[in-house]
Amino acid sequence: MGVVNVTPDSFSDGGAFLDPDAAVAHGLELLGEGASILDVGGESTRPGAAAVSEEDELARVLPVIEGLSGRAKLSIDTMKPGVARAAVQAGASLINDVAAFRKAPTEMSALAAESGAEVCLVHMLGEPGTMQRDPHYEDVVSEVKAFLEERLAFVVSEGVAEERVILDPGIGFGKTVAHNLELLARLDELVAIGRPVLIGTSRKSFLGKLTGVSDPAARLGSTIATNVLAYTRGASIFRVHDVAAVRDALTVTAAIPGGCRSGA
Ligand code: HH2
Fold first, then answer.
1. Which of 75, 119, 178, 218 has the highest Cβ tally under 10 A?
2. 0.70 exceeded by the pTM?
3. Distance CA 149, CA 163 (A)
4. Cβ(102)–Cβ(126) below 8 Å
5. How far apart are CA 11 and CA 245, in angstroms?
6. Distance from the alpha carbon of residue 128 to the mean position of ligand 1, in angstroms
7. pLDDT (tens digit per residue) in 159-212
């Protein structure tokens, strides 16, 4: 899954693709690098990011979805049902909601159920504005697992087909470095829920804290390490900015005989 951020303030590439034509061109480039899904987002969820109105978010993402429609499998990264609906109508077939449908439970579920779109439910502790203020868990993996199971059961009870649901532990969404590492180490426990697991570590700040690399775009080495590890623990979808490099790394990892993959 290649990231297409149509935002002025994303932590890793804010402002680079705010122009719709530039965003579409970037999406096509990521497809050329081997992405099989493009995730289009118009609201940054980085810690402390400013909220965006529905009108502004739509104005950012819709021309990009329209420009890429029919050329790729498209995911809409939004917490707003109005944005998700317009994006699905314009050609998106995956609703990626970092709030896991908690902001608009029935509207989001109804949209997914009636459209047949896939859904990605993400764990987040708190809100984007405050989530990195001293997050605390007794056992991060079992708490994230219980949350994802509860959200999965909820959307299924609202009529969403279980086989259309993808689960995501939400790396960096209300987690310390230690929490993120624990989730990666024990990702197979989330894979055991029985749904595909999506993992998003790309360029995130915990990698910078571990390596001392402050420029997000220079965090490719650590991004690759975490995606390879997630693959071996059974993750199925890898949300990244640098598609070509991560795809090569995963292709080689997958080719190594001896079953380096558990779970899934
Ligand atoms: N991470 C980000 C945004 N959306 N969606 C899923 N499913 N999983 C993630 O880990 C995830 C996500 C944050 O990364 P990015 O889009 O690069 O930054 P920003 O939120 O600042 O736009």
1. 75
2. yes
3. 14
4. no
5. 20
6. 11
7. 999 999 999 999 999 999 999 999 999 999 999 999 999 999 999 999 999 999
Q: What value does the mean pLDDT take over residues 216-245?
A: 98
Residue 219 amino acid letter: R
The type of residue at 201 is: T
Q: d(Cα 218, Cα 201) in Å, to the nearest integer?
A: 14
In the chain the first and final C-alpha atoms are separated, in Å, by 18
What is the identity of the amino acid at 104?
A: A
Tokens matching residue 2: 């290649």
Find tokens 């995501």 and name the residue: 168
Please report the pLDDT score of residue 129 as a whole number.
Answer: 77
Give the pocket of ligand 1 (CB within 6 Å).
Answer: 3, 5, 7, 10-12, 41, 44-46, 77, 96, 98, 120, 122, 168, 170-171, 198, 200, 239
What's the rounded Cα separation, in Å, for the pair 174 and 124? 6
